[in-house]
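Batch manifest, entry 17 of 40.
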Amino acid sequence: MFGGGGGGLDPRKMQQMMKQMGIDVDELDAEEVVITKSDGEQLVFDNPEITIMDARGQETYQVVGEPETRGADETSAVESGDESGGSSGIPDEDVEIVAQQAGANEDDAREALEATDGDLAAAVERLQ
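Output type: structure tokens
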């Protein structure tokens, strides 16, 4: 794209050129990326390299890695099993969000979520 005669372009120079064209490039630290296809099959990238290019407000994500393919029937089993924390069925992510927003510890956040049937806003309000 930028020429250079086969030897490649100095990455720093390329970054300068992209900045001049109004393109910002950042890396995103992620553990997993899941792409769900229209037929329900999922492509799961563990520890992918993700680059975000922002060109005049339009963000483009580039995911690099080896995907694992999961069928639609495997997907429902994973969603119902791995994501929930403990026996309450409240996802750990929800507990963390409520704990952060309310300034409470995770045990209190989990109790509030259980009391409000998993309603995040109600749980935060209950703890404040």
